[in-house]
User: Which sequence fits this backbone?
């Protein structure tokens, strides 16, 4: 029997990891599952978050699975199958990965006889849809074009008219995808998966939706985005962290920091896991950590200024 594959796509900070964690914690998956987690950069913050749910995680920390570590990605899938024999593998690509590149990998001979794609889900942050679609259309449109289901995040934070406009724009790109726009706190994880009956995709036949723009095929994440990590040695309060990231949002001296996430030792010697997406900062308690680390992703980053702010 082939191992089923669920792919969770979505741009930086859309909420992929927390959707996966919600589905797992609420029992939407009752199978023997494993997760292959990929970060664009040198550290895997999301893997630490997912370990709170006691899920097996295969980390790939060097680059993006759609380009630089394609070989490693295939080997990681085979390793997970051989080691854990899961009935289903959840794959969370980097936020700057393209679905077209990911789906192509499953057509290769090493994999096509061992796995079948079951679900392809793209998570979209409604608060930042227009900004990201305008500035990073190559990546954003590819993730929308080639998905089967779209789950909208942070819908509770925008007006109903604005939400309707976003849904209209999404449908212009992909008319066939099912769109779930409910507030995540008001819907059960199993309902997100069961909203539509997915038919397993024949990997040999699946070609996706042919991109309309040549730039979708030519732009690579490594040519557009950059990433680096720092390892702070001092403890911070939540207010100090909020202040620092507000400064990053309001100043141009740090470059365009699109996404930052990390795990920080707090003043009370507990650890907090935080997410920063443009002008939004959230922090929550995490149990499994021994040191602090912050990963930054953006464009034209001023690494020296960012390091001076935290180190």
Assistant:
């Amino acid at each position: 029997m082939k191992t089923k594959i669920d792919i969770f796509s979505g741009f930086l900070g859309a909420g992929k990891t927390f959707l996966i964690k919600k589905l797992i914690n609420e029992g939407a998956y009752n199978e023997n599952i494993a997760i292959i987690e990929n970060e664009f950069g040198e550290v895997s913050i999301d893997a630490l978050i997912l370990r709170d749910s006691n899920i097996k995680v295969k980390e790939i920390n060097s680059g993006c699975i759609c380009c630089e570590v394609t070989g490693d990605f295939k080997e990681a899938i085979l390793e997970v199958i051989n080691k854990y024999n899961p009935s289903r593998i959840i794959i969370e690509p980097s936020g700057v990965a393209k679905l077209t590149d990911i789906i192509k990998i499953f057509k290769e001979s090493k994999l096509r006889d061992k796995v079948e794609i079951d679900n392809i889900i793209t998570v979209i942050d409604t608060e930042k849809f227009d900004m990201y679609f305008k500035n990073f259309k190559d990546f954003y449109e590819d993730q929308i074009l080639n998905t089967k289901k779209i789950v909208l995040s942070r819908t509770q934070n925008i007006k109903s008219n604005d939400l309707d406009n976003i849904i209209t724009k999404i449908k212009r790109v992909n008319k066939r995808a099912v769109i779930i726009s409910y507030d995540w706190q008001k819907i059960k994880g199993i309902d997100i998966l069961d909203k539509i009956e997915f038919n397993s995709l024949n990997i040999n036949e699946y070609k996706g939706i042919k991109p309309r723009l040549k730039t979708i095929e030519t732009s690579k994440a490594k040519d557009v985005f950059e990433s680096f990590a720092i390892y702070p040695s001092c403890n911070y309060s939540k207010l100090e962290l909020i202040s620092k990231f507000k400064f990053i949002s309001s100043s141009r001296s740090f470059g365009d920091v699109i996404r930052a996430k990390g795990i920080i030792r707090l003043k009370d010697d507990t650890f907090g896991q935080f997410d920063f997406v443009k002008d939004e900062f959230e922090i929550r308690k995490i149990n499994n950590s021994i040191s602090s680390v912050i990963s930054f992703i953006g464009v034209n980053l001023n690494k020296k200024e960012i390091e001076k702010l935290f180190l």
In short: Residues 59-71, 197-218 have pLDDT under 50 and may be disordered.
